[in-house]
Structure formats: C-alpha cells, structure tokens
Batch of 2 targets.
Target 1
Amino acid sequence: MTASAPGLMPPLKDWIQNINFLTSASKTIELPADGPGEIAIAGRSNAGKSSAMNLICNRRRLAFSSKTPGRTQLINVFTLRHHEQEVGRLVDLPGYGYAAVSQAIKARWQRELATFLETRASLVGLILVMDIRHPFGPLDRQMLQWFDLRNRPIHVLLTKADKLTRNEQSIALAKARRLIAAEKASWGRNCSVSLFSASQRLGRDEAIEKIAQWWHLPSAAPEPNVAKKNPAR
Ligand SMILES: Nc1nc2c(ncn2[C@@H]2O[C@H](COP(=O)(O)OP(=O)(O)OP(=O)(O)O)[C@@H](O)[C@H]2O)c(=O)[nH]1
Ligand SMILES: [Mg+2]
C-alpha cells in the first residue's frame, strides 16, 4: 500500500469504480512487474467471477461476463489509482474446471494458477468465488491449499445466492463456516466467507470491506460518534 494518508481518502466503495484495465497475460511470467497490493479473484469456470468483479466495482462490463463458460482465458489485471498513485490491483484469473477443454489445456491452466498463487510476490489476498449451490469442490480446495502456503487471507463469496431461498442461504453459509472452522489447521485459519449475488446486488459492502482492509484503505465513512470519540483521526 502506497497511500500516505488513508484517513483523508473517501470510502473505497465510492471510488472503486475508477479502477481501470491494465493488461492481460496468459502466463504469470508475462505479467507486469509486481505492483501494489494485488488481490486475485478466482473460481470455477462460470462461477460468477467477472459478474462479482463488475458489481464490486460498480461497473457494467469492466470484466467480461458471458453465458459461455470458459470465456475468460487470460489473467486480466485492473488497477486502481488515487491521485496518480496506484493503490491496488484486482486480478481476474481464468476459471478452472471448464469441462469442454482438453485434459492438456486443463492441466496447463492448473499449473499456471498454482504458479500464480504460489509465486506472485505482491499478492495480498484471494477472493474465491463459488456457486452457493455447490461450493468447496475438489478444485476449489486445491486452490485453497496452494494459497495456504502464502499464509495470506482468503475471502469466499458464495455467489448466485439469489438461486436459493433466504433460509437455504443461511444454511449454506453456516455449513461453509463449519467447514472453514474444521480446516483451521490449514487454509481455514485465513479464510472468511459471505453471501453474494451479482444479480440482486447482495454482498457488495462486505466484499469491499475485505478489499479495503487488504489495501489498507477506508471502506466506508466513519460513524459520527466514532469520529467524535477520536477527534484526532
Ligand atoms: N442468477 C445469477 N446468475 C449469475 C450471478 N453471477 C453470475 N451469473 C451468471 O453466471 C454466468 C457466468 O457468469 P460470469 O461472471 O461470466 O462467470 P465467470 O466465473 O467470470 O466465468 P468464466 O470467466 O467464463 O470462467 C453468466 O450467465 C452470469 O449472468 C448471480 O449472482 N446470480
Ligand atoms: Mg470471467
């Protein structure tokens, strides 16, 4: 994080839409030099990564979302600047597990994802997007295990929550929390989870709160009474 006076910045949710596309690459070694706080967004093919990123950033087509699974086959990097200074990057990773590609291509992507998660120095956190109807599949767990080696935070978005009733959503969330707690000897110790729906605009604030934390930025305006209690801040 490079901003010197985060207290003077507006809440991230009000200006994250200033984020811009930086570059695409098909391999980690082709990416630009390590930059300020990179946050990767990963998930199974068609899980809803691009839609999640569009809602978080309040942009209609920042990241390309489509009805054809597997369309995002590149590592897409987006950068956020404040007064010309880069404060963070969001990295939309290619989806894994797309059934309609060959084993060889799947294996190549798995290797690329592992390389990215294990070696990218400026990676400060991982947002893992999972369809709430079938979360924590074997490939999701593989991602969690690779990233666990870095000992950095992970936030799981249980997306497409609109496909379930309120009650089913609560059950799915509680089940995910139990699973994370059961894994606290490994990836679970760095992992949090929340409900998300791009189509119902659910869960944006919670996701931004994580991102802001990881970038050391304010996520929302301070409560008036908090401001009074801490007049110096
Ligand atoms: N009902 C519902 N549909 C969603 C939601 N998020 C995404 N979708 C749909 O799911 C499909 C895939 O969404 P994307 O955002 O393109 O998913 P992705 O993970 O980026 O896909 P790839 O990059 O191709 O791996 C699209 O048809 C979206 O409209 C959601 O919250 N609710
Ligand atoms: Mg995508």
Target 2
Amino acid sequence: MKCDDLLALLNDYVDGDVAPALCAELEHHLAGCNPCQVVVDNIRQTITLYKAGEPYPLPLEFRNRLHAALHERWQHAPTGDSAPTRASTEPPPDS
Ligand SMILES: [Zn+2]
C-alpha cells in the first residue's frame, strides 16, 4: 500500500468501514509512515470534535449571523463572465 492508497481509504477507515484485510494493510503502512500517522490523527481529532459538537444545534443568533455573512458574500461574489475584474470587496464607484 502507498500513501495515496491509504489516503483514498481514509474516510472509510475512520468510519470503521474498511474490510478487515484492507484495514490490516492500512495499519501496517501507518505503522511505518509518519506523515500518514499525522494525517490520520488530524482526521480523528476533527471527527471527535465534530461528533462532540453534534448534540448541540447552532445557537440561533450564530446561525442568523452566519447566514447573513454568507448571503453578503454571495451578493458580492463575481457572477461569471459579466463580473468585472476588480476585487469583489471594493465599494462601487461614486457616480
Ligand atoms: Zn504513508
């Protein structure tokens, strides 16, 4: 197994969804590959954090602010070939 193979399987691996034979290969690679260990650690931490936060819905105010921020961003985002090349955050010129 190579690092690429491991990375391709990672999502399933952290979900405990990888076939046992494949899992053994993966862990064998992991044991000898420090970069892959770091990646797996990071993913596990992220998932733990995510799962820990799962029972708590976003506070309504936070959600509203998030939506407002996203909406703002979408409105100012370039809309394809009609978009000018200037930065989308630039205020419109006074006229
Ligand atoms: Zn590796």
